[in-house]
Amino acid sequence: MSYLHMTPNVAIAVAAVLGLLLIATAIAWPQRHKKEELWLRTRTWWVIVLLIAASIALPSWVPVALFGLISFLAFKEFVTLMPTRRADHRVLFWAYLAIPIQYYWVSVGWYGVFIIFIPVYMFLALPLRMVIAGETQGFIKAAGTLHWGLMVTVFSLSHAAFLLALPQEVNPLAGGDGLLLYLLLLTEINDVGQYCTGKLFGKHKAVPKVSPNKTIEGLLGGVIITTLVAVIAAPYLTPLHWHQAAIIGCVLALAGFAGDVTVSAVKRDLKLKDSGSLLPGHGGVLDRVDSLTFTAPLFFHMIYYLHY
Predict the structure, then answer these.
(1) Distance of alpha carbon 6 from alpha carbon 195, whole angstroms
(2) Which among 39, 81, 133, 272 could disulfide-bond with 32, CB atoms 3.0 to 4.6 Å apart, if both were Cys?
């Protein structure tokens, strides 16, 4: 795994993101009293962007550890939301223990174990621990809930961190940092693009029973904006050709939408608006990474197949 600091291309990209955030802050500041949620969102974005920028400027174990912390917080929110049995409390220790182990495989770049540890070994270990506990009432629901939570909040998100373990020489201009930044940029641009175009042009509900505010126009706007940004940013941050970037941009836009509404379905099932309150203006960590849970594994495997 590379321990290089920011390459010039990554530094320029980070500066561009900070510039966009400055523009957003200038827009939100005069309206901070009338639109408090918008101002809270903007302030929280400053914390998120500066934290990520600082981490990728440091040795690569730092952003890996940061994503491990994000997975921990997201999984903790998930477990807090879900009804659990008393018999599952000891099983939860095994589930939490899986988080540092999964990110250890990321830190050493051991792809073979990274890719099967949670889908296979934890899939077997969690129900085994439940069997040892001896409680059969609600067994299937508890096993499925915990494993699904690990898959979404840990396995999926750890794909973003594993981008840092990919060989530097394949992407010499930006390395793994560039790939990670590219993924995060497209995922968040898609969220913003869908929100803005949906507000401006949205008329037709996309999934009214799951997320009433999502519109088909917003989805299409997000796809167009994300695809354009993907093509523009690809030569600076990735080894992708323009047509590969266009396809990936389109796929990530659709995947981000799917991740968003999937987590929305979970919250609607539990009759909740947000998964938590840790991030002012955004809700919880799970609210902020919902799109990334779908885009991270898809982006990783597409770029891995195409260039690694």
Answers:
(1) 31
(2) 39
pLDDT at 203: 86
What is the Cα–Cα distance from 19 to 198, expressed in whole angstroms?
A: 24
pTM of the model: 0.93
HSE on the CB side for 155, CA within 13 Å? 20
**Ramachandran angles phi, psi of 215, nearest 5°:** -120, 160
**202, amino acid identity:** G
Q: What is the pLDDT of residue 188?
A: 94
Which residues are registered as beta bridge partners of 202?
A: none
| 197-215 pLDDT per residue, tens | 988 888 889 998 888 889 9
Q: What is the pLDDT of residues 231-248, one digit of tens each?
A: 999 999 999 999 999 999
Backbone φ and ψ for 206, nearest 5 degrees, come out as -85, -50
Token digits of residue 287: 């609210």
Integer Cα distance of 95 and 77 in angstroms:
13
The sign one gets for the Cα dihedral 8, 9, 12, 14 is: negative
Say if CB 126 and CB 97 are below 8 A apart: no
Distance CA 299, CA 248 (A): 7
Q: What is the pLDDT of residue 5?
A: 67
Q: Which amino acid is at 212?
A: P
Given the structure tokens 């919880």, which residue do they identify? 284
Per-residue pLDDT, 2: 44
Classify 32 as helix, strand or coil.
coil
Distances in Å between the Cα of 164 and the Cα atoms of 29, 158, 268 are: 35, 10, 35
Residues in the chain, pLDDT under 70: 1-5
What pLDDT score does 89 carry? Answer: 80
First to last CA, the chain: 15
Whether the CB-CB separation of 290 and 265 falls below 8 Å is answered with: no
Assess contact for 299 and 162: CB atoms under 8 A.
Answer: no
Structure tokens at 222: 């997000």
pLDDT, position 269 = 85
